[in-house]
Structures
1.
Amino acid sequence: MSTDRTSPGHGGPAGPAAIGTDTPAGASGPATGAGPRGDTRIHNIGYRGYDGARLGRAYARRSLYTQSLRGSYGLGRSGKSKVLPMILFAVMCLPAAIIVAVAVATDLKDLPLDYTRYAIFTQAVIGLYLAAQAPQSVSRDLRFKTVPLYFSRPIERVDYVLAKYGAMASALFLLTGVPLVILYVGSLLAEMDFAEQTKGFGQGLVSVALLSVLFGGIGLVLAALTPRRGFGVAGVIATLTISYGAVSTLQAIAWGSGSPAAVKWIGLFSPITLIDGVQTAFLGASSSFPGELGPSAGAGVVYLLVVLALVLGSYAVLMRRYRKVGL
Amino acid sequence: MTALDRLSLDIGPGVTGLVGANGAGKSTMIKILLGLSPATEGRASVLGLDVATSGGAIRERVGYMPEHDCLPPDVSATELVVHMARMSGLPPTAARERTADTLRHVGLYEERYRPIGGYSTGMKQRVKLAQALVHDPQLVFLDEPTNGLDPVGRDEMLGLIRRVYTDFGISVLVTSHLLGELERTCDHVVVIDGGTLLRSSSTSDFTQTTTTLAVEVTDTDATPDGTRALVDALTAAGITPHAGTEEGLPGAGHILLIEATGDETYDVVRDTVAGLGLGLVRMEQRRHHIAEVFRPQEAAGAKGPAGGVGPTTAAGTTGATGPSGSAAPGAVGAGTTAQAQHAPRKGGARNEH
């Protein structure tokens, strides 16, 4: 019906008359591409309501989690924002791949680097990733005042905080866990002892899971304090490097000045040495403290408690922070 | 700090305007209605749901367009609105379909795939409106949707808001500090000031009493003082111009302000000007600034504190119920309401430009 009326002859003075006669027919069906005048009206199909499912709060929280996790690797964002996280991810995996290649080629009996040591070894990369992505995740919403758009929807403050925290921790877990998977697969390819490797791999995963939750919380708190992305980046880097630098210097001084008992307590004051202490005490890791003076199981409980307190504290600060910015 | 003080109000379906100066409590009211900021006392319900207990259920069925800029510049309108649709609980496929539909309805086409950072203010306002409508709510709260728009953009946005109700069937609560622009868009206008109800009435009441016409004419050789001649002619025709003139504006002293009682006023003015052989420079409807409604309030306040307390209790106890709202508080707070209506005549019209 519509195709035979697409001739361009409808333009000009003849138009109104022609359209006048066509109108009843044109209105009865959703014709497309008719005469030049009738076009706009025919194309304009009216507003359609939505009667489908509304999946509610839990679904919205899940959607926010997925979106934030993808965003942490630049997925669903501009090409430019994929560059840094992807480079850091590659940098994290590269040493593992090299170790595996060497192990397979030279037929080693054991991995030259423990699973639990890998994250300590690559802590600078983890810190950089956190500094880049934590502000991306929360400062943007604050800076562009997008937060009210979320809180005017079914989700509550707790959903927002949990989704963002969960996404950041998951992103860190991917960053630190994938190299361990590479190491594990490599060790099996090199036909190392299966039971021993599986145990080490499991301990490594627990360790990086703890690290991800701890670092994620600290990163998000520092980033959420300021809507300025730059301050967030600087804050995260400063906190991680300064605390680690101070702790390792003090530990070296304590070790050198003949008070080795102080070494393990000083380790409580920086995130990475906290993880080091916990895994030394409970996950069979060898400590990277001076003289390998990591905490024993007793002191390890203190380490664990401090980690838990920091995680819960981060959560509480985030909840408090978003109570203020609500709408 | 008290943002809203004993304000009772009942809003029915349709487009309702909420007018008040900055700090009058408009945004606070929206926050309370969204269940985000609990009122210290009293109660409110939206769509039959109590805001204190069913905030989540309310927010699933209403849309909210914030007053301020709230759009991240590095994502496209489509990405943002799809995400927001999912945050409202729409499944992924439905979210994409509704986003395409909604953006088309608010007038965003090819540009919806470009990052929002490059949009004009008018386009950004449309994106903000789209994200409030994408989940097909039963009611939307629009907080100052015409902020920052030029006159043409304002008119387009107001037309769009009107369509949200007439074509989409979504009721609207829209705030503004400009009474004039809401008069033309809303079925019902509520005026609040300092957290108290000043006035609640259907727009027909408003326009009948507050439409002011500004007329400017040229002088000719035959009538050296065209303005004076027109005043005389109009008075003879039964229309009395306002005594007050506009000051400090282009054409000051030459602009006549006339109360328009209906379409026939326009005809009389046109015929009179033509009869005198004058050139008609302008004949336009003046937009009233909200200050006009507030001015008598100040006058009443000067008489004594009783003037301020009277209407407050009236609003709190009687309540303004639907279309009869103008009558209910008027019974007790009659002084305030009546004076408000006379404001333009007393002080000369102040305009919004």
2.
Amino acid sequence: MKGEPVVSQDAPITAEDLYRCVHCGLCLSACPTYMETGLETESPRGRIALMKAVHEGRLDINRRVAGHWDMCLACRACETACPSGVPYGRLIETARRDAVEQGAVSWRHRMVAALFLRGLLPRLRMLRLLASALRLYQRRGLRRLVRWSRILKLLPGGLDRLEAQLPELPTRFFAPQPGVLRAVGETRMKVGLLSGCVMPVAQAPTMDAAARILRRNGCDVATPVGQGCCGALNLHSGDPKTARGMARRNIDAFLDAGVDRIVTASAGCGSAMKEYGELLEDDPVYAERAARAAAMTVDITEFLAGLPLDPPRGRVDARATYQDPCHLAHAQRITEAPRTLLRGTPGLELVEMEEASRCCGAAGIYTITQRRMSERLLASKMEWVLAAGVDMVVTANPGCAIQLENGLREAGSPVRVCHVVDVLDQAYQAEEGPSPSAVQ
Amino acid sequence: MSKRRPLVKGLEAIVGKERVVHHPEDLLVYEYDGSIDRAMPQAVVLPDSTGEVSRVLALAYREGVAVVGRGSGTGLSGGAVASEGGLQVALTRMNRILEVDVENRLAVVEPGVINLRLDQRARRSGLRYAPDPSSQKACTLGGNVAENAGGPHCLAYGVTSNHVLGMEVVLEDGAVTWLGGMERDSHGYDLRGLFVGSEGTFGLATKIVTRLLPTPPAAKTYLAAFSDMRSACDAVSAVIAGGMVPAALEMVDALTIRAVQKVAHAGLPEEAGAALLVELEGEAEELEETGLEVEAILTGAGAFNLRWAESEEERERLWSARKGALGALGALAPNYYLVDGVVPRTRLTEALERVSEIGHRYDLPIANVFHAGDGNLHPCVLFDERKPGAVERVMEAGGDILKVCVELGGALSGEHGIGLEKKAYMPLVFTGEDMEMMKTVRGAFAPLGRLNPGKGFPGGPAGHHNLQRGAVMAAGPGAYV
């Protein structure tokens, strides 16, 4: 960007991280973009080779090089596959930061970064305002008119596709509140629930369900008002500076609320917050607090499966399959907890689809910046979902849910998409006797 | 370079722009495979069908361009490195499993199919594809055929050649033909046998017919810790001498254990000087019996910590530690040079002691992770290619190790192929007449010698050697782009 220093103030890619890669190639078959294209340039090993070449002074970062880094979903499936423990997530984030600083990214990326990542995410009030406007647009006849007029098709940038992919917004948004929602029965601990950015507007019912389940299982639930977006999307797209600001705000909000755990219902946010310690390790004021907040962060499935859970007694009669969110399976290495919760739900039959831990192509802003690849990955995912013959596909991350919903809608499939907590909540709601929904 | 433009135009006319790689930045990631050799191709093409491969090879033939086949690029002898430039034909997009014939226990696959995918697909029908290179979750069957790949379970079941019935191949001039077929026995010369392990110098396989075996009813996997390599080697000899044929018999040394544990916490014995992974397969009752015998032999040879996988997950964890061991060395050093020499099983102890001496002499750490049951050593010389002179010293040490293997009555390569770096040592095991014979055979398949020139075997024109070893130091900044 003009007016900003080209030389990064942040640490460069470290040789130690880079040269841990011995180019054995075992990551290839785990990489969604490699499997889709067969191209080494779109593989983790290839991307690292380009970073090495830049590091060694054999190559300058240009649009072509940055293009290969941008094609990466940052799903980190390669980290799970890597036998030598290359910290790929950290490498790709740093490489992208360098690409952004050298102006080697596409106009689409710059636009999304300016409007959405730096414009809206750090200012959730604006995001909510925009969401309210969109909700009006969806509810009143305007959407029908716009679609009928096909005006969006005439504008550049694929606005029509973008519009079609907007999730149907709920009537009510979820919002952080002062005070604490009391546990049902005896209080075991006090947890802070991350509200997040997209989830409270697009999937408010899921957030409500998360709070209900936590209370049902002996937790006082705080949703501190100072909190905001976790900063993951900013970090992933090469803007650690903005991400750090967002991290500091969340750290303050949750530590000041005096909670025992920070619970997230979004895999992407949980993964980012668990890495707050690393993100702020050079910050003299925040380093210690960041590490503390990171250590307190848990994904809601991990948290619930680790409790002596009060098992739901109501039934959810459905055949379901589980889509591993990349940032749960690969970044946090959590694959069993969500499945355990689903298997423990009466009436629910869990079947595995093929390639359950392969990225669906959502990956944050990827659906906008790399639309073609995102659609190819989604098409493959839809094949596997539909082949599983299920009523419901369950996941644990808002981005995946929106992407899967879009895929299923376009395929004309009646298969529903749910979050793990939606399923659990349904089971609790279906219990006979005194209704737990009284806690709402 | 002047030849590049017409070549690229011609390729784009065959497969379209998206599947031709020719920008220098992009070619940079095609200069390596899993080995330490490096060289840049002029272009890379990714065909989708036999027809396209045939047209691509015909074009290269007309243009006088060398052709190097490439799968996932996990090879360890530089087989997929375009050491003399030319065109790389990456077969990664031809990755369909065309047929699994359960009744006849065979599969027909394209060359880009990943080894593990075929095995997983076969297992759904109660069958398996036996050869299991450690890189099996990424390496392709085309590459396996080219290098006649092995793997831990080849001790009991044999290498790739024993599991390939036939293949469709595209020859140097683009002609398409079949070698072998769907039958177990064929008449005439075993051209299929010649082709497997020809390291891409005869042609490119575009369809492969593989055997599938029934999966064993049960398996038992032992992990035995020893205080040193010598006692572990004695245990290997004792198991074999006892008339047992385990499905796999693998050894890791202390340095390898350290690397694996640093990354994966796989439960390998950190206090051991060496460990053996022994897998038995068969009927459950039979396993109980042989299991007791094996336990007695291992303990007798000095195993101080003997345990077995209690569950399928634990068994998988042990195998994943073994198969990821090579990559895990990245936690100790940025580069390794794996020497694929073979020695008679009875000379294992002696061989390993001499390998260790070589390490001391060159002052280079050497990690050992290998197929002990086959006598197939894999000493991995650890180094940092960015240090001046390191590569040369490592290659010299590697040469000395190979000489030891030959002296002890062994061979240059167990399963990775001769490729580039072992070529100079061929005369250690072959006479001039042997080499002439190989040249004649190669000439019969590829008269112009433009398929993977400079690899493995004698024959083909003496091209210039534009190989970049330790390219960073040799090339200096801005060498390519």
